[in-house]
Amino acid sequence: MVGRGAERGGRGRRSETSAARRPERVRRRARPTSAQPPAEPPRPARSAGPQKRRKRGAILGLSTTRRAAVFATVVCALALSVAVPLRTYLSQRSDVEVQQQRQAELRAKVDELQQRKEQLADPEQVLAEARRRLRYVMPGETPYMVELPPEAGGPGASQEPTQPIPDQAWYQALWDAVTGERR
Questions:
Q1: Domain ranges in the chain?
Q2: How far apart are CA 21 and CA 28, in angstroms?
Q3: Is there a smaller number of Cβ atoms within 10 Å at the N or the C end of the chain?
Q4: Which residue intervals of 12-142 are DSSP H helices?
C-alpha cells in the first residue's frame, strides 16, 4: 500500500508502518515544501503554575475586566430591550384608566338621560316645561311678568353698572389702549 506522500502529489513513497508511527504534526513538519515557509522550532515548555493562575481569573478565556465589560453590555442590552415594552405597557395602562373613567361618566350621563326621557313621557311634565322654558300660556289665562328694580336685590342687582359709551371712533380707542393713553 502507498503512504500519504504518494497521495499528495507523488513526491515520495513511504511504508504504511512508518507513517502510522509518526504523529500528524511531526509528519507535516518533516517535509517542508517550497511553497510553505520552514516550520518554526518548537517552543520550550512552560511551567504549569502561571497558566493555572490565569485560568482561575479567566472564564471562557476572558480576563476580569473583559468579563465585566461583557456583563455590562449584556445588562444594558437587556435593559434597553425591556424599556420600550415597559414604557408602552405603562402608557397603555394609564390610557385604559382614563377610558374607564370616561366610560363611567358616559354611563352616568346615559342613566340621567333615560330618567329625563321617562319624565318627559308624562304629558303634565311636558306642559310644565313649556310654561317654564317657553313661557307658554293656556287659552284663557293672563300672563304676568314681574320685573324688580335693581336696588330691590333682584337678578339685575348683581350686575355692575354699564360703562358710558365713548364719543371717539373704535380705532382711536384701540390706539389709546395700545399706547396706554387716556383722553
A1: 1-30
A2: 13
A3: N
A4: 16-21, 24-30, 48-57, 64-120, 123-134
